[in-house]
């Protein structure tokens, strides 16, 4: 049986990771092990935005670049470690937006080089992304934006349930399904592993990523804490508040991180 440490050991330095926002299934158990290991040079893509996972990795010096629509701590405000890194220029920021990230992942899912997108045309983002190409639409005669495929090396996520065959139940979190299809590999921590076949029942199958897309799974009860997991446990707002207050300074971040790493 794998552990979160086993999953972290299989994520090499320099890997391109797809990570979920705080509400969507975050494997903080594996993030903790990546930081303990001293991972370096990671490239993060948000699905489509990022929260505490990215904030901790950035503050710990594990991240080289981030492509995301936003990064924040939600109702706890800005992500202070990320803000320090942004101002210092120690992390490369690839500006993006929700529909562009979904379009890029959709292109990778379908095995094509790009996806057309109209809604972003006219925004400042187009000027900030030389890899996005404006083109004439051969069907409408108008202009369209061509967004290149986004192909993460690894999707890392946390879910409530997997079955003994390796199928992963994500429920309504369809962005995880999209990212699993687009990524080279998927590593997941789960609350539990059940013996029944999740794909044999239509009620469960609709929210299940087949084992074909899942490389490794590890059991990690409360593995999404402190951000919580839909249907299982809420976010630990006291811990998130304590983090947001501590991380206002680099010294406070370091103290919080040391305590968090020692807490499991």
List keywords for this structure.
264 residues, alpha/beta, nine-stranded mixed β-sheet, three-stranded antiparallel β-sheet, 10 helices
Structural category = alpha/beta
Mean pLDDT: 96
CATH homologous superfamily designation of the largest domain: Glutaconate Coenzyme A-transferase
Number of strands: 12
The major sheet is characterized as:
9 strands, mixed
Describe the structure.
By secondary structure, this protein is an alpha/beta fold. 32% of the residues lie in helices and 23% in strands. The chain has helices at residues 4-9, 28-37, 52-59, 80-88, 98-110, 125-128, 174-182, 202-205, 237-246, 250-261, and strands spanning 16-19, 42-46, 63-68, 92-95, 114-117, 133-136, 143-148, 154-163, 168-169, 185-194, 208-209, 216-219. Strands 1, 2, 3, 4, 8, 9, 10, 11 and 12 form a nine-stranded mixed sheet that branches. A three-stranded antiparallel sheet has the order 5-7-6, covered by helices on one side. It is globular. The protein starts with a helix and ends with a helix.
């Amino acid at each position: 049986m794998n552990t979160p440490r086993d999953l972290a050991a299989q994520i090499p330095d320099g890997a391109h990771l797809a990570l979920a926002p705080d509400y969507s299934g975050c494997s903080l158990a594996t993030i903790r092990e990546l930081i303990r290991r001293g991972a370096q040079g990671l490239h993060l893509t948000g699905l489509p935005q990022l929260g505490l996972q990215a904030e901790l990795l950035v503050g710990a010096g594990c991240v080289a670049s981030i492509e995301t629509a936003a990064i924040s701590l939600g109702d706890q405000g800005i992500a202070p470690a990320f803000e320090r890194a942004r101002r210092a220029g120690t992390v490369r920021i690839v500006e993006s937006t929700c529909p562009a990230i979904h379009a890029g992942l959709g292109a990778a899912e379908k095995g094509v080089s790009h996806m057309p997108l109209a809604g972003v045309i006219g925004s400042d983002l187009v000027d900030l992304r030389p890899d996005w190409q404006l083109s004439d639409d051969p069907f409408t005669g108008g202009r369209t934006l061509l967004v290149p495929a986004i192909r993460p090396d690894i999707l890392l996520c946390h879910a409530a349930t997997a079955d003994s065959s390796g199928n992963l139940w994500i429920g309504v979190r369809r962005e995880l399904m999209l990212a699993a299809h687009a990524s080279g590999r998927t590593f997941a921590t789960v609350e539990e592993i059940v013996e029944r076949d999740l794909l044999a029942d239509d009620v469960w199958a609709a929210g299940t990523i087949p084992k074909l897309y899942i490389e490794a799974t590890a059991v990690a009860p409360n593995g999404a804490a402190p951000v919580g997991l839909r249907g299982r446990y809420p976010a630990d707002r006291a811990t998130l508040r304590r983090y947001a207050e501590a991380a206002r300074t680099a010294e406070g971040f370091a103290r919080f991180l040391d305590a968090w790493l020692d807490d499991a």
